[in-house]
């Protein structure tokens, strides 16, 4: 039977402390020096994977100490149940859809956190804070997106997930072609090592911890912000020899116990430097567990599903905060809160200025101080990869119909190997999370007024941040940072703003109007930027009307190549021109070779002629029948991406 929230609170601590009136007197005493901030962020750690939350088979004494000296939350959410989106939200105080960081960015991603977005580090720097990021970043791997470009003084860690490497589940390097390059370990902006073997993964938690402690020791005399983002317990699991075999649960438990040791090392460094009383320590996870990895995954306890979903097991995570003298020891918060609230709360605590652009987080200092009746967050929007899948207000969660992965009814994997997903359609529903934390009983028919109110909240979300489920474009969505192709973003030519008479339509996954073929704007390395027409497994053809005869000297097709994303140059491009639309002259065609090339490039495929009068131009790009033998997707359908048909020449004189 699914427990109610009251029953769960009783299990996890003294429920009577939840949002109770404070019994201590030091809450409003101003700090004599700026408050340090330590933010510890784990990867794929489940809601139940801390002792105070009911962990089984392993112990977390240091995290339990943190909770006993501070507050733990029962209703705390990461913004989304997936890596990059969650991290973007944590650092910017925005839903990921607002800043256009969706899903988990791969090593071939051509986007990252936009340089104009303001992070926690950037609001603290003007106040004289030293700032360091240690561990997993996953907000863009190019130097233009790394932590040093987002307010951090120093960085040491992996640019993305530790499973994005050319090594199989058994720890053996993949022979032949892999979709992933070697996994880089970065210091500052430079690759200093590669993580090549499971034994290298075993050292990550210890190495991150050592760097974090060194930073605290160096920065103890002044205010500092430490962002310690562990790669673990994301698979492949790695643990140092001193913790291997230390838990009853097995390797996953060993990993959590090493993370707990790491927390203890951070707390010890604060104590040793005499700054524990003046430091806010926050511990939470980026999303729930990857349940199809079986014994190498954590537990959501009473929650439904896990990572990669908008059901409670995906975004609801453990969260503990300690701030001596301001947060009451052994307190429990059952108020609604999220990682997006950390930035505005840190701003309120430190006196930092909030970003000028809109954010979605709220200041939850009133929750930390157990102020009577405090409800700083009343709503939460459950986005996943741009889809608005649910909204919550108070105890009520309104789920909208959507397609999702599921871990129910399938056999999980084991020992580092994944099991399959089930894919299900989740029907619309209303859940009372106070009574039904496991989302098992739809009470929509009994509460139509609440359904209507939450549906209205959903409409506000769609209007603001969009919704791929309903095809809505949000009015406040900001672009991601995009990698440059090293060229101008516009081109002036004779076909700019010509009439596209006929064209192969863009694939529904990349919905753009074919007018982008003649708008004079060139696409970026981000093939989702709305400037590329995309076709999969078919040829592309377009016919243009220049609306007047001109002297044509060159016709070009501007194409993108990102082989790791299955985007190939067309193997043949054919050009023809006509002055009357009936009689066509074929120009010299252009062929390309499909050789391995890891570079991301835009290539202009051109055919020149010695000045021919023409009003109409036709271009045909022949796709590959299938991806070549050397490609990781051999036998699959190739994509062609085109952003401009360029006509050079001169107007005809009368």
Protein traits:
654 residues; alpha+beta; Alkaline Phosphatase, subunit A; ten-stranded mixed beta sheet
Characterise the protein shown here.
The longest helix is centred in the middle third of the chain and has 22 residues, at 251-272. The chain has a ten-stranded mixed β-sheet with strand order 8-7-6-5-9-1-10-11-2-12. It is built from eleven helices and 28 strands. It is globular. The protein has helices at 5-12, 61-68, 83-92, 96-99, 120-124, 198-202, 204-219, 251-272, 342-350, 365-368, 448-465, and strands at 36-42, 71-73, 76-77, 111-112, 130-135, 154-157, 183-187, 190-195, 224-229, 279-285, 319-322, 331-333, 337-338, 379-384, 387-393, 396-399, 402-406, 422-426, 429-432, 481-482, 499-503, 533-536, 540-561, 572-578, 585-586, 590-591, 601-622, 639-651. The model is unreliable at 13-31 (pLDDT under 50). A hairpin with a 2-residue loop joins strand 15 and strand 16. By secondary structure, the chain is of the alpha+beta class. Helices cover 17% and strands 26% of the residues. It has two domains: 38-376, Alkaline Phosphatase, subunit A (3-Layer(aba) Sandwich), CATH 3.40.720; 484-651, Sandwich (Jelly Rolls).
């Amino acid at each position: 039977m699914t427990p109610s929230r009251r029953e769960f609170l009783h299990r996890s601590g003294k429920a009577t402390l939840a949002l109770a009136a404070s019994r201590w007197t030091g809450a409003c005493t101003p700090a004599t020096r700026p408050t340090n901030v330590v933010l510890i962020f784990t990867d794929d750690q489940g809601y139940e994977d801390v002792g105070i939350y009911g962990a089984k088979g392993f112990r977390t004494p240091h995290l339990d100490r943190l909770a006993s000296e501070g507050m733990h939350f029962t209703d705390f959410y990461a913004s989304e149940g997936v890596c990059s989106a969650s991290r973007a939200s944590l650092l910017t105080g925005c839903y990921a859809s607002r800043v256009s960081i969706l899903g988990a960015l791969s090593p071939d991603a051509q986007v990252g956190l936009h340089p104009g977005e303001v992070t926690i580090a950037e609001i603290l720097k003007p106040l004289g804070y030293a700032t360091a990021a240690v561990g997993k970043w996953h907000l863009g791997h190019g130097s233009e997106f790394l932590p040093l470009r987002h307010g951090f003084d120093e960085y040491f860690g992996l640019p993305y997930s530790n499973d994005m490497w050319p090594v199989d589940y058994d720890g053996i390097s993949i022979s032949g072609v892999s979709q992933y390059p070697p996994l880089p370990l970065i210091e500052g902006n430079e690759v200093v090592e590669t993580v090549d073997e499971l034994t290298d993964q075993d050292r990550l938690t210890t190495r991150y911890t050592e760097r974090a402690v060194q930073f605290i020791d160096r920065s103890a005399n002044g205010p500092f912000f430490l962002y310690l983002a562990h790669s673990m317990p994301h698979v492949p699991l790695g643990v140092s020899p001193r913790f291997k075999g230390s838990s009853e649960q097995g390797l996953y438990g060993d990993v959590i116990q090493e993370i707990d040791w790491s927390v203890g090392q951070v707390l010890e460094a604060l104590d040793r430097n005499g700054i524990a009383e003046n430091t806010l320590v926050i511990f939470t996870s980026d999303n729930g567990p990857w349940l199809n990895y079986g014994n190498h995954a954590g537990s959501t306890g009473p929650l439904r599903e896990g990572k990669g979903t908008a059901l409670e097991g995906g975004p609801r995570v453990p969260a503990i905060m300690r701030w001596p003298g301001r947060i009451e020891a052994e307190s429990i918060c059952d108020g609604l809160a999220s990682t997006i609230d950390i930035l505005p709360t840190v701003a309120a605590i430190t006196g930092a200025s909030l970003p000028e652009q809109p954010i979605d987080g709220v200041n939850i200092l009133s929750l930390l101080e157990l102020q009577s009746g405090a409800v700083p967050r009343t709503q939460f929007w459950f986005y996943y990869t741009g889809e608005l899948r649910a909204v919550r207000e108070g105890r009520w969660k309104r789920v909208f119909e959507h397609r999702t992965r599921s871990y129910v009814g399938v056999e999980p994997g084991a020992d580092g190997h994944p099991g399959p997903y089930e894919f299900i359609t989740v029907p619309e529903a209303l859940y009372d999370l106070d009574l039904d934390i496991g989302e098992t009983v739809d009470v929509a028919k009994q509460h139509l007024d609440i359904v209507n109110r939450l549906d209205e909240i959903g409409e506000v979300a769609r209007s603001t941040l969009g919704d791929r489920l309903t095809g809505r474009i949000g009015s406040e969505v900001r672009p991601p940072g995009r990698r440059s192709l090293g060229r101008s973003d516009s081109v002036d030519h004779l076909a700019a703003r010509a009439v596209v008479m006929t064209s192969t339509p863009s694939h529904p996954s990349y919905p753009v109007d074919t007018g982008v073929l003649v708008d004079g704007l060139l696409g970026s390395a981000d093939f989702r930027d709305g400037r590329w027409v995309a076709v999969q497994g078919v040829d592309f053809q377009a016919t243009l009307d220049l609306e007047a005869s001109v002297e044509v000297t060159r016709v070009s097709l501007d194409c993108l190549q990102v082989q790791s994303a299955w985007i190939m140059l067309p193997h043949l491009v054919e050009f023809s021109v006509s002055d009357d639309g009936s009689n066509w002259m074929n120009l010299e065609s252009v062929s390309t070779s499909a050789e391995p090339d890891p570079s991301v490039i835009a290539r202009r495929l051109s055919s020149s002629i010695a000045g021919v009068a023409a009003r109409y131009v036709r271009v045909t790009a022949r796709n590959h029948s299938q991806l070549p033998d050397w490609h990781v997707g051999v036998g699959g359908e190739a994509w062609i991406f085109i952003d401009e048909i360029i006509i050079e020449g001169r107007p005809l004189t009368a």
